[in-house]
Design brief:
Layout: E1 3-22, E2 28-48, E3 52-55, H1 66-78, E4 83-89, H2 100-115, H3 122-129, H4 134-141, E5 145-148, E6 153-156, E7 165-170, H5 178-183, H6 194-206, H7 209-214, E8 217-218, H8 221-227, H9 229-240, E9 245-248, E10 255-259, H10 262-274, E11 278-282, E12 284-285
Parallel strand pairs: 1-8, 3-4
Antiparallel strand pairs: 1-2, 2-4, 2-5, 2-12, 5-6, 7-10, 7-11, 9-10
């Protein structure tokens, strides 16, 4: 096989809890529940005769792109022959809290394993992904997962979510970085929603969409809203439009809302697009079937 194309799905955090303690390598310890959604980038990998890794990634310079770094890590680890061309068709907004870079990097790692016929179980993939970024650890598996540790302990949950329409809206504004979002956290305000995490988990088990929506949580939301009120306005708009609930996506500035009604989700989407936002109506997707 000389070529493979994968879907690199966006992720959202149904529960994003940051504990007020620093773990390994200066990272905060976390409790997350993540899902993959139907919005995706396409990542095409092609083996080449010449050495080196070429990437067309349209939004970031090659030297800064974690998809390129993921490929280089795989080539260095396994001493792979030849070279690799990476073509990314971007749909996921960049630097928006949706894991766009991390999911591309995970797709590159999974794609290289398939393309070169490598034997690498999931726990080894997650361990290697730590060298690229903590969100890549989750994206290697995807689907519905609980994440702990410093983001590197990923447990796939054996449940299907109830049907829902998930509206994602991304404003034109961009936050400085995820590191900046961590820097503005108040330790007195984070890691205090363990009860919501457990009720969310119970709602997932029972396929109770209202319970799931009622117990969304994101510890970044309050501080990020202070600096970027536009994101707070997006949340309020979705709630007025009939969303069961809405929340900041990751470290922002995207916001997602959970709707039972497709027409309400579409109406909200159309209104937010008129205000300049990039919007998608999505649904949850399952994890890849990997051993």
């Amino acid at each position: 096989m000389d070529q493979i194309e994968l879907k690199a799905h966006a992720k959202i955090n149904l529960s994003l809890n940051i504990l007020p303690e620093i773990g390994e390598n200066g990272y905060y310890k976390v409790w997350f529940i993540n899902i993959s959604v139907s919005l995706y980038d396409s990542v095409k990998l092609t083996r080449t005769q010449g050495g080196g890794i070429l990437i067309n990634e349209p939004t970031v310079e090659n030297t800064e792109n974690i998809a390129s770094r993921s490929a280089q890590l795989m080539f260095d680890t396994f001493k792979l022959p030849g070279g690799l061309s990476i073509h990314v068709t971007k749909r996921i907004p960049s630097r928006a809290g949706l894991g766009g870079g991390s999911t591309d990097a995970a797709a590159v790692m999974n794609g290289i394993i398939a393309l070169y016929g490598l034997s690498m179980p999931i726990h080894e993939r997650v361990g290697l992904a730590r060298e690229i970024g903590m969100d890549v650890c989750y994206c290697i598996i995807g689907g519905l997962c609980r994440i702990e540790g410093i983001g590197d302990v990923v447990q796939s949950l054996p449940y299907d979510l109830p049907g829902a329409y998930i509206l994602i809206a991304t404003p034109v504004e961009k936050k400085p970085s995820t590191a900046w979002a961590y820097s503005i956290l108040d330790k007195k305000e984070i890691g205090r929603q363990r009860d919501k995490l457990e009720m969310l988990t119970d709602g997932i088990k029972k396929k109770d969409l209202k319970c799931i929506a009622d117990n969304l949580n994101n510890d970044f939301e309050k501080p990020v809203f202070r600096y970027f009120p536009k994101a707070k306005i997006l949340k309020a708009h979705m709630l007025r439009s009939g969303a069961l609930n809405a929340a900041l996506a990751g470290s922002g500035l995207s916001v997602f809302g959970i709707f039972e009604n497709s027409s309400a989700a579409l109406r909200s989407k159309n209104e937010l697009e008129q205000s300049g936002c990039t919007c998608y109506i999505t649904h949850p997707v399952r994890a890849l079937n990997m051993k």
